[in-house]
């Protein structure tokens, strides 16, 4: 019977050795609070459990370290019949006095509150325990922290958002605080709406990188504190611009293009710079023409290099800026200009008239005109001696000339093309007709390009010199042989030949060789007789001063007598 009575006592003693069944206080050692602000001190306590204890009779207290619990008032009390000190009344408050929570809520802290505090628990009239082995050290300072600004969601241009400003230690029931906002992003707001701890506004692209300040004020004890942040606003690309730079100038030499059309001279080196204002930076690419859905860019950087611009580069170039918030593009139309490129002139005889044509390509389209000698043959008009017709289509201009055979000897016929970027001309030389070249008859239409004629004349000149040397050696071996004469007694006929080009011989050419002279060798030696007839072209850079100069021999020919 006795062992059964001792069992509850042994059980209670074993519980006291376990956590929660002995006196224990859990609270931080030191807490700092700014003067006039609030602080929450978390705390929990434990005491030996007994079936005789009732929660309704449990009371808790906080005392200053120097207080006597029998005669001094606590700074905080959960017992309505035990008042607290007047200087801490309504400022030191238990968070939840009905539980084993000894957390202390201190508001409107004062410098005089600085000190050490201990906790006491009271259960009915049988238990009263002070936890002096674990004390709270409270420090009240006059230095105030800066307010905190919290961005509740990322800032995007055009999307309404909120920012919260709070002061560490501020609490309800404390001394009133006044919040105000300042910055370029909120200057347009009504001042009455800026005096809140939560700011609601709609950011704009121009707000990116600007400062926003939250200021906190309190009249007594005097407090002024503020914090400034720099706004990071995301926005899609806008105001795309294209900069241009010629040759190999540095990037700082780029100049913004004020129009969507750029005219450039052929052969120039061009650099195009695409600038997109966005945050974060957009991905820039260049396309030829309009970028399609799966188009491949010709450049994946902001700069497009065109080392040598030509007609093949003429057309539209587009810069595209891709961004998570949207994509935009800007286009440039490139127009390439260049000086005239001349084709012709080419001439032919039809009936008794000389017909010539000349074409030229340029950008802008060139103008064509004809010159006969020093005289100008006016375009798109006719008179008794000539008819000129010119037409233009796109970069091409074509002109035709019909000329009556009222020509002087050795006149130069020129076709000239020009525009604002340059001039080019080409000429043909009109020669007095047949038998001009070494006694041969010249065709009425004999127009050979100047470059081919010059090259042919040089080749013939070299060949004729060699053959001449050979013939002279043979002539010395035949001293009795006489050189036959070649007559040039045909009637002249007007012919044409380009400057420095070789004249073509027609079917009405004179005989290949002339009869031997009266003092020739005997007939027995006639089979071994050789002779040479030489004539040469000369490259002319201007009209000859002596008309007979144009009739000088210009090619060579060697024949063997049978």
UniProtKB/TrEMBL annotation:
This is Ig-like domain-containing protein. Residues 147-230, 250-335 form the Ig-like domain. Residues 1-16 form the signal peptide. The keyword Signal applies. Gene3D superfamilies: Immunoglobulins. The chain crosses the membrane at residues 450-470. InterPro entries: Ig-like_dom, Ig-like_dom_sf, Ig-like_fold, Ig/MHC_CS, Ig_sub, Ig_sub2, Ig_V-set, SIGLEC. SMART domains: IG, IGc2. GO terms for cellular component: plasma membrane. Belongs to the immunoglobulin superfamily. SIGLEC (sialic acid binding Ig-like lectin) family. Residues 481-526, 540-562 are annotated as: Disordered. GO terms for molecular function: carbohydrate binding; sialic acid binding. It is found in: Membrane. PROSITE patterns: IG_LIKE (PS50835), IG_MHC (PS00290). It is a single-pass type I membrane protein. GO terms for biological process: cell adhesion. Keywords: Cell adhesion, Lectin, Membrane, Repeat, Signal, Transmembrane, Transmembrane helix.
